[in-house]
Amino acid sequence: MVLAVAKRENEGWLNVDSIDNFPCADLRTIDQLWVKYSDGRFGFSVQKRIYQGLGGTRSYDEKIWKAFGDKVGWRKDHWLDGWLYYKDITYDKKAPEGHLPIIGDRFNIWGGWRLFGGCWCVSSLASKLVDCNL
Which positions fall inside the GUN4-like domain (predicted)? Predict the structure, then answer.
């Protein structure tokens, strides 16, 4: 749904521009659905709280990005820097708080997540959530 709203279905991931231009009303609705149906465990606003709690800002900081990945369960064992592949993401309520949603279908920083802007997208998303009062 997020990719359809952003018109990025062919790419399969969001970039900074698509996040910056994402309609606040749609972002709010999607976030509210995640928060409601996960009993407050998942959602963009949950990720924002975690990211900012670690000191995250719109500027990329590798240490904070890795700490965020550790906290939400996107990094394990630190093999190849520890970032999970998309296929290894957990899709149930037992996942760590903030584990979902994922903003693309290519998810491993070593093999490409960084190339697709993953770390910059999370910081941009946090800023967008502030702009949208989420």
Answer: 3-105
**pLDDT tens, per residue, the chain with 134 residues:** 888 888 888 877 777 788 889 999 999 999 999 999 999 999 999 999 999 999 988 777 888 888 988 999 988 876 666 777 777 888 999 999 999 988 655 444 433 344 344 555 667 777 888 889 88
Task: Name the helix (H) or strand (E) containing 125.
Answer: helix 118-131
> Can you tell me which residue has the tokens 């997540």?
113
**Which domains, from first to last, does the chain contain?**
2-131 (1.10.10.1770)
Q: Is the peptide bond before 96 cis (omega within 30 degrees of 0)?
A: no
